[in-house]
Amino acid sequence: AVEYLSHPSGSMNPYFRNLSKVSQAIKAKKQNPILEENYLLETWFKASPDDYQPRFMHIDLSISGDKTAISMCKCVGFREYKKQESLEWVSIMMPIIEFELLARLGPRRDLGETEMSYTALLELIVNIDNLGFNLRSGLITFDRFQSHGPLNSLREWGFNVDTVSIDHTLHKSIVDYDSKNNIRREPTRKMPSAAYAAGRDAFYQDRVIIPNIPLHPDVPGMTWLEFEANCAQWDAEKQKVVKMSGTSDDLLQSVVGAIFNLENNKDILLDAPESFDAQSQKQEDDFYKERGRNLNQKRMSPEDDVLRRHQMDNEELDYIEDNFSAYSSYNGR
């Protein structure tokens, strides 16, 4: 039986009204590879040799008193939906999104740290890329707080990076090798909570897979992600999602930001080859030449296709109730 989480005291307009969808996405038997207390990765955490899918990250950097949240996801398949446009229904393909890593990181007390080490965070990202996870042809975004230094370092090392505000999302970042710094920005068309909307839709459509994550120390039986989703509120006056006073939203923002990044760059995932013949560099290069890929771009592993834009489906500014969906699961209609 599904257990529905109760809304916290003081909750006026919860954004995730169907919290069971968040709970169902968390798979207790799927192991999370990162040790939050020291940022170390489990020895089994390596990409398969034939796995070239781009990875997508969003990092919510810490302000005083909170944690730096990091998450990484990839596309593992697609589900077909029908979307109504004018007087007819059209088919769209939406990605099934698997998170391979997510964590809330703070100062490593055993090393005497009193603040988050951004150097250690950068080392973690590079280490993940070196383990075969294709971050360089995906996208890493940061919120705006203190992101200038880490963003510039990663850009110099050949990663596609940008800033995206989850609190007030004004643009989506599209990887485009013909644009400055390989990033093309497109407006969200007056949707300040576009990232949250993308994340909620993905959870509600059962398209998200989350590994097991730590429980909240003060809320029995509830993980940090469930807790933060439970405390996310819709502020009708500000037209944005806010956290309840005294709560956190670091991990939730990282997760919906990563989903937002992947969906905005999903078109290439539909037609990129599943693997490459390691002996045929020419075949790989020809694939990219057809799509305008800059073959001189620095890289550490074979890269997937140029990522292109994904239209946000909801142009409305007003709050959409949970029982509304722009999509219906494909039923042959």
Structural summary, described in words:
There is one protein chain. The protein has 7 helices and 14 strands. Strand 4 (54-60) and strand 5 (68-85) form a beta hairpin. It has 333 residues and is an alpha/beta fold. The chain has helices at residues 20-25, 118-130, 148-156, 194-204, 224-230, 250-264, 281-289, and strands at residues 26-27, 34-35, 40-41, 54-60, 68-85, 88-105, 134-142, 161-163, 171-175, 183-187, 208-211, 232-235, 240-243, 327-329. The strands form 4 sheets. Strands 1, 4, 5, 6, 7, 8, 11 and 14 form an 8-stranded mixed beta sheet that branches. The chain has a two-stranded antiparallel ribbon with strand order 2-3. The model is unreliable at 1-11 and 271-333 (pLDDT under 50).
